[in-house]
Amino acid sequence: MSEEQHQPSTVAAATPADHIVGEELLVDSSTDSDSTFGDAVDSTTTSLASSVTNYRYEHGRRYHGIEDGRYSLPNDEAEVDRLNLQHRVWEIALNGHLYVAPIDHDSLNEVLDVGCGTGVWCIEFADAHPGVQVLGTDLSPIQPHNVPANCQFIVDDANDDWVYGERFDFIHTRTLLLGVKDWKKVMKQAFDSLKPGGWIELHEFHIPIACDDGSAGPDSAAMKWGNSMYEGFQKFGVDSMATAKFREYLAEAGFGDIRETHTKFPLGPWPRGDKEKAMGALFQKDIGDNLHGLSVKTLTQGLGWSTEEVESFLPQAKADMYNPQIHTYFPIDIFWARKPR
């Protein structure tokens, strides 16, 4: 990303964007303890049609059965747990807010969450806005049965043509990066699916991971993991650094009032600050404890590693992520923009 793109934008007073975790993480040298934030993960079961549950099983994990190769991460119960845990990291980072755009609550009628995963964001948004219809879409039907009456889930691929029409007041995406091959198309379709004056908001990490203080050198297992994953995603046609072009794509699609801010999700409770420690402990568990499921397909099918090479390497990368002397993090980019009236 260019330096200009990494500068946090100026946001209007009293918006949630003023209260997210800042971009700077300071190492806490006073303790190496592993603080925790609690275990708030609940497994869920799907309420969608069985016709889309023709799953594939590889490397001991379950994957979606829609259009092979579109998405490289699992969709089984372990992944459901991981995604719900990850939602808590975002919850801490945003101080309990579900979005940062200055949307007008009184004008909200329909909201779309693209790539909704377990549906937890949709459910919480629907609970908070009972008069708003919330639609969540995802490749996999892993959402729960019991949802608010104003919340609905459908199986859909964000890469395909959208057929919603100009109906939504707010469109949200989070960690959709690994499932999208053409962000320009997605943003244009989002623009066409928003009513005039509606907002889009995109919350994304990017890979490779980073380290600011040199505690993880370029030859460390953690940094090798990040770089290898980036290369593997490229083989699948996915750019895990695509956020560098989000402002450009949003403008090309027709959006105005484009804003952005940036933060970091630490891999471990190594930073100073209670909030940062809580985020780091959860995110360490989210990524480190699920490294095999997150990595095996990308490294084997994307880069051609043998199963033996993967099984030998991943414990080394996990050890780095759990080493309190190594201070790595995922860069996080948040964009929000408005369709002109």
From TrEMBL:
Protein keywords: Methyltransferase, Transferase
InterPro entries, sorted: SAM-dependent_MTases_sf
GO process annotations (BP): methylation
CDD domains for this protein: AdoMet_MTases
Superkingdom of source: Eukaryota
Molecular-function GO term, any one: methyltransferase activity
Coiled coil: none
Alphabetized Gene3D superfamilies for the sequence: Vaccinia Virus protein VP39 (3.40.50.150)
Pfam families: Methyltransf_23 (PF13489)
PANTHER family: LAEA-LIKE, PUTATIVE (AFU_ORTHOLOGUE AFUA_8G01930)-RELATED (PTHR43591:SF31), METHYLTRANSFERASE (PTHR43591)
Protein name: S-adenosyl-L-methionine-dependent methyltransferase
Source organism: Phyllosticta citribraziliensis
